[in-house]
Design a protein that fits this description.
Length: about 200
């Protein structure tokens, strides 16, 4: 019986440690960040860079992410993206707004790291046609969100940020394990067609 209790305590403490490791934190700039460093033995820097670049170009929905910096010599990829978050209400879940973020991937031989940071919330409002549109000029950095947003909404936004970061982090890990797609070879020679014979 003691062995079972000790094993249960060990498993629970391991889960708590894992949960603490895989969560949002603050970086040296006091910005909210989701950070992971991954060992990838047997892969060189160039391979990891190419797979990271392929991930950034293919993994995100069209129009929701763009690559802003690609430096192969330093092994750095940076991009900006956004996703929609719901607003909690008693009657229904409506669109709360959009959260923009920055993602960075850095690669070295046999390892890479990535992080999501610079989370900024931009609320939606109804326009005169009844459509949900972004409110221009109203942006809230998530570090200040606790003071400026409703507590329930803020909690939902943080959960959505963590979920989105975990989802794309897991997808990045899968992309880093598999081969990148090779570019298609396009035959650029012009073919001649005879209209006299058929």
């Amino acid at each position: 019986m003691k062995n079972i209790i000790v094993a249960l305590v060990f498993v629970l403490s391991a889960k708590v440690a894992l949960a603490q490791k895989d969560s949002l934190a603050f970086d040296e700039r006091n910005k909210c960040i989701y950070y992971q460093a991954i060992e990838q033995p047997g892969l060189i820097k160039d391979t990891l860079f190419n797979r990271g670049a392929y991930f950034m170009s293919k993994a995100f929905p069209k129009g929701k992410f763009k690559v802003t910096k690609s430096d192969e010599a330093k092994g750095v990829l940076t991009g900006e993206g956004s996703f929609i978050v719901p607003k909690r209400s008693l009657i229904s879940n409506s669109l709360g707004g959009e959260i923009t973020y920055t993602m960075q991937i850095e690669v070295k031989d046999a390892k890479y790291r990535y992080w999501f940071t610079d989370f900024v919330f931009n609320p939606y409002k109804r326009d005169r046609y009844g459509m949900e549109v972004l409110t221009p000029g109203v942006n809230t950095a998530m570090e200040k969100g606790k003071d400026m947003l409703d507590k329930k909404d803020f909690s939902v936004y943080l959960d959505k940020i963590l979920l989105n970061s975990r989802q794309y982090g897991g997808l990045l890990k899968a992309y880093m394990l598999k081969m990148s797609a090779k570019p298609k070879v396009v035959d650029k020679t012009i073919k001649k067609i005879s209209t006299k014979e058929w």
